[in-house]
Structure formats: structure tokens, C-alpha cells
Specification:
Layout: E1 5-10, H1 31-34, H2 37-57, H3 60-65, E2 69-73, H4 95-106, E3 112-116, H5 124-131, H6 133-140, E4 143-146, E5 152-156, E6 165-169, H7 173-176, E7 181-185, E8 187-191, E9 195-197, H8 209-215, H9 220-227, E10 235-246, E11 252-263, H10 266-276, H11 285-292, E12 301-303, H12 321-326, E13 330-334, H13 352-359, H14 363-379, E14 389-393, E15 397-399, E16 402-406, E17 412-414, H15 415-419, E18 425-428, E19 441-443, H16 449-459, H17 474-493, E20 524-525, H18 533-545
Parallel strand pairs: 1-12, 2-3, 2-7, 3-4, 7-10, 8-10, 13-14, 14-18, 18-19
Antiparallel strand pairs: 1-11, 5-6, 5-20, 8-9, 10-11, 15-16, 16-17
Helix pairs in contact: 2-4, 9-11, 14-16, 17-18
The structure holds iron/sulfur cluster.
Iron/sulfur cluster (SF4) binds near residues 217, 362, 428 and 430.
Length: about 550
């Protein structure tokens, strides 16, 4: 037995997998579905992968003895007939894989809960309907829960570097307390914020909206590593049947990998997934960070071949050639004064490379969110890419009492010049506050990914595809969003915590000093205070604002 064994299994037969990889077909549950050759092959692949992993690691006993098995897919966005160029994009966990996983698990533990919270403002109920997870739950008799409408419990993470406080929705409390078995079923795909997104990053979809938003900034890798103190999957099964390359959370292009990766060590499993996509995990800041925290215990012993596909990396740059080719008339200016930004003394000595470094000083927040917003336009059927606007990133580089930003060639723009640009200006995040009086379009926070994405499409005068009538599920989306917000509002008014106050700072609650007794613990329960009426009203107001988009 070796707990760090990772199993990789691949479909060798010439069988087409590019049908129904986002949404289950209507005949799911009938013989016509289960007798399809691709469905039978996928089922065999899931069963073989998990059987071998059980043989190598013996994980099944814990699963059998657990109170229930919580399975979390990755449905941050489900792109099926969503008003973009292609009918499907491989962004979300393949429901055919999920169905087979549930079937396999139920041989040993009948009590299964499928739990997810999609990216705000996409209601998870809509993601369940589009993908067909609701039908899997009905057919297999499992629980199904939308985490964003659940009460939360608070925990303190004494060893965390940034995210000392975390809120966990009640369906995951049993996982935290070791009573439930947690299976993460992510997609094999690249990501704008963290370069790749696999099993342990999937936990970002567990925590509530406001906490998740504030995690998206230049410290995202540290915050994800912090989360490993409290949420470590017992089993990770990476869905790499049809991988996704490009700029998630925007649409990505399919890569026909035809494989699954499974392991009980979340970091070792994700590192194998990373190599399969053609990236060296040691080059990825997120993996370096989890290594520094002691969550990496050495390379996995891999059972199976590890093929290498060269996925197109996520490219968040707005100063780079690809973005410039897509949007030739957008003037992008970057100027950060964040601690990790390059220090500049002479504004006339900035090279294109330094400008890129400046831009990348905050990769995990507004930059990535903005790029996904523009990426929707690239994948949209309405291509309005010639509009001339200016996009300003960062609060400016302070040099000799003035603020400066730089274009893709390194050419400097002093604040006065930026203010007098004769084109609409888009500024993002709290960093962009400095120019808010001249901005025609802006997004608040640090960071609000949805606000950044919507600001990008608004500035280009292109409807956001998911919020347009071209989205086949637009009506359902709207109804589910209203229901979700009303539920969150009602719970808030009753004084039940479902989130933290919407504040984009790294510590929302004053964190108490941890006594010696607790300092070596991974987490400590930290009950939330009773909400007074003023707080109830504030929390309810935060929820209603979700509908403003
Ligand atoms: S507001 Fe500034 S620091 Fe915060 S995510 Fe946006 S660019 Fe980064």
C-alpha cells in the first residue's frame, strides 16, 4: 500500500467522446443511454481506475465507514448552448463521469451527497439543470445541495498565512470533522488565476461568495494553500476525458485526452494532472506555495502511462500580443505599486518586459477577471472587437510625486495624460479608484470577478453571452438567480449566517490571538456571533445586490 499512488487510465479504443461531455442527454436513465458504447466505455474506465486505486491505497474502508460521501464536481460555469460560438465548452465536470463515480461509490456507501456552488452569479441550481446533475441525483437517489444557500460555520486556521478565518457551508462540516468522505471530481484544465485548476483548488467552490471574491487577488495562491489546512479531499478523480485549454473561467477549447487521474493525496494527484497538461508543477506558483507549507510529500508513484499533452497555457496578459491581435484598438496601461511590483525610478526607462511584469504584479485578481471578460467576446457570436477604449490596470507607479502607467511598449503615461485620453476609460478594482472620476466603466472591489467580466463586455458594448437571450438557459438562469438571492436574503434576515459581510480585505473579522494550546492545530471551530438587526439588514442588502450584477 502506498498512499501516494496515483492511477492514470486512458481509453485506447477509437471511440468518440465529444458528445454530451457538458450536459447529459435527454435519454439519461434509459437503456438507450446506458447501452451507448461511449457510456459503457466511460463507466468501465471509471470503475477500473477506482478499483486499481483501491488495490494500491485501500481508501475504500474509510469511505465505507463514513457517515456519507460528499462528491464535489467542478461546475464553476457550465457552457452548453450558452450563446457562444460552439454548443459546448469543456469547462465543467463531465456528467457521464460523475454518474459512473456515483454508481461505483454506492456499491460501498449508499449515502451520497452531490454538493457544489458555481461561480457568482451563476446559480448552482442552473448548473445542476444544464449539466444534468439533478437527474443523476434523482436516478441514483443521492442528495443534491447548492452550497450558496446553506448556513455556514466559522473556523480559525492557526497555521494559515493569509486566510486565517474560513466559513464552511454546513454540508461540508462532516468532511471537516472527519465524519464524511470527500471526493473532488475536477476537470483537467488551465486557468487564468492560477494557471491550472484541479482537485484541491476545487475547494474554492465550497466557500461562500464574499469569501471567495476576496480570495481572488495577488495572494490567491497563498489563500488556496491556506484552505488545505481544512479541506483536503480524501479522493481526487480528475476528469480528463475532454480537457480544456485556454482561459478558464472563460470558455476553453477541447483537448481529446481520454483519461482519468485518481489519487488519495490531493497534491500528488494534481501534480500528475499538471504534468499531463504539459506543465512542470515546480514552475507553477500555487504548487510551490503548497510545497512550502509541507503539503507536498514527494512525487507520486504512478500506476499507468502518463501521456503529455501540450495544453495552450492560460494567458491573462492584456499587454501581450494575443490580446492585442484580438483587440487592436484597446489601449492598455499598467501601473502597480503593490509590494511585488517592479520598482521603477525612471519612467522613460521602462521596457515592454518591465511593463508586462508590472501588469503581472496582481495576476490572481482583476487582471485575470478582466481577461476572462474580454475572452467571452472572442468566443461570442457577436464580434465587436474594433471599439477604441483605454483599460487601466493598477493604481499607478509613484515616481517623484506623480503617478505613472505604461503601455505594451513601455511608453509612459503620467496621470494627467491618462485623465485627458479621448476615449472611454475602464478602470478595475480598488486599485482603479484613483481614476474613478474619469472612468466611463469600472468594477469595484479586490476583487469582484463577475463585476470585472461584466465591465469588460459593457465597455466593448457586447452583451455578456450568459445574460443574453442567445443563452438557451437565460430564463432558467434568471428564475434560479432570483430564488437563490431570495433564499439568501431570507436566511440573513432570520439572523442565519450564509456568508461573511461583503468586504474585500484579507481579514474580515478581527482574528483573536491563538493560544499555545491551539497554535499547532490545522483548524479550530470559532462560532460566529449572534447577528443583531443592523447586521441582518446589512447582510440582506448584500444579497439583494447580487441581482444588480
Ligand atoms: S484591486 Fe488591485 S490588488 Fe486587488 S485584485 Fe484588483 S488589481 Fe489586484
Amino acid at each position: 500500500m502506498n498512499e501516494r499512488t496515483v492511477v492514470v487510465r486512458r481509453i485506447e479504443e477509437e471511440i468518440a467522446l465529444d458528445r454530451d461531455y457538458v450536459a447529459l442527454p435527454e435519454d439519461y436513465g434509459k437503456d438507450s443511454y446506458f447501452q451507448r458504447p461511449d457510456i459503457q466505455t466511460i463507466r468501465s474506465l471509471v470503475f477500473e481506475t477506482l478499483d486499481i486505486l483501491e488495490e494500491k491505497t485501500g481508501f475504500r474502508r474509510k469511505m465505507e465507514e463514513s457517515r456519507q460521501v460528499v462528491i464535489k464536481p467542478n461546475l464553476v460555469s457550465v457552457y452548453h448552448r450558452s450563446g457562444m460560438f460552439e454548443e459546448d465548452y469543456p469547462e465543467s465536470t463531465d456528467p457521464r463521469v460523475m454518474d459512473a463515480v456515483v454508481e461505483w461509490v454506492q456499491k460501498y456507501n449508499k449515502k451520497v451527497l452531490i454538493a457544489e456552488s458555481s461561480g457568482k452569479p451563476m446559480p448552482t441550481a442552473t448548473s445542476f439543470r444544464i449539466s444534468g446533475m439533478d437527474r443523476i441525483a434523482g436516478y441514483r437517489n443521492t442528495g443534491l445541495v447548492t452550497l450558496e444557500t446553506c448556513p455556514v460555520r466559522r473556523y480559525l486556521l492557526p497555521k494559515a498565512k493569509v486566510m486565517k478565518e474560513v466559513l464552511i457551508p454546513t454540508p461540508f462540516v462532516g468532511v471537516v470533522e472527519g465524519k464524511d468522505f470527500y471526493i473532488s471530481v475536477p476537470k483537467l484544465k488551465t486557468n487564468l488565476y492560477t494557471r491550472v485548476t484541479l482537485g484541491f483548488k476545487n475547494a474554492m467552490g465550497v466557500i461562500p461568495y464574499a469569501l471567495r471574491e476576496r480570495n481572488h487577488n495577488y495572494r490567491i495562491d497563498e489563500k488556496l494553500a491556506d484552505m488545505l489546512y481544512i479541506l483536503r479531499p480524501d479522493l481526487t478523480l480528475i476528469d480528463g476525458l475532454v480537457g480544456g485549454e485556454g482561459n478558464t473561467p472563460a470558455p476553453v477549447d477541447p483537448v481529446d485526452c481520454r483519461l482519468l487521474v485518481a489519487g488519495t493525496d490531493p497534491v500528488a494527484t494534481d501534480r500528475v494532472g499538471c504534468r499531463i497538461m504539459g506543465f512542470d508543477p515546480d514552475e507553477i506558483p500555487l504548487f510551490r506555495e503548497v510545497g512550502k507549507r509541507g503539503f507536498y510529500h514527494g512525487e507520486a508513484q504512478v500506476d499507468g502511462e502518463v501521456p503529455v499533452f501540450h495544453f495552450r497555457p492560460a494567458d491573462p496578459s492584456l499587454l501581450g500580443d494575443t490580446f492585442h491581435k484580438h483587440f487592436p484598438n484597446i489601449l492598455v496601461l499598467a501601473g502597480h505599486s503593490l509590494p511585488q511590483a517592479p520598482k521603477i525610478r525612471d519612467p522613460y526607462a521602462v521596457t515592454p518586459e518591465i511593463a508586462r511584469e508590472l501588469e503581472g504584479a496582481c495576476r490572481g485578481g482583476c487582471l485575470a477577471a478582466l481577461r476572462s471578460g474580454f475572452e467571452y467576446i472572442v468566443y461570442s457570436t457577436k464580434k465587436n472587437r474594433d471599439r477604441q477604449i483605454a483599460v487601466i490596470i493598477g493604481s499607478g507607479v509613484p515616481i517623484d510625486g506623480k503617478k505613472w502607467w505604461f503601455d505594451r511598449d513601455g511608453k509612459p503615461y503620467e496621470e494627467e495624460k491618462v485623465r485627458n485620453l479621448e476615449m472611454p476609460i475602464l478602470t478595475v478594482g480598488n486599485c482603479g479608484e484613483v481614476l474613478k472620476d474619469v472612468a466611463s466603466y469600472r468594477s469595484p472591489g479586490c476583487c469582484s470577478p463577475s463585476a470585472c467580466m461584466l465591465a469588460a463586455t459593457a465597455a466593448m458594448k457586447v452583451p455578456f453571452p450568459l445574460l443574453s437571450l442567445k443563452n438557451h438557459y437565460f430564463g432558467i438562469f434568471g428564475l434560479d438567480a432570483v430564488r437563490m438571492v431570495l433564499k439568501r436574503t431570507a436566511l440573513s434576515l432570520r439572523g442565519i449566517w450564509i456568508d461573511c459581510p461583503s468586504r474585500h480585505v484579507d481579514q474580515i473579522y478581527p482574528v483573536p490571538k491563538v493560544s499555545d494550546k491551539y497554535k499547532d492545530r490545522d483548524f479550530v471551530p470559532w462560532p460566529l456571533p449572534k447577528m443583531n438587526w443592523k447586521m441582518r439588514k446589512k447582510m440582506a442588502g448584500d444579497q439583494l445586490r447580487i441581482l444588480k450584477l
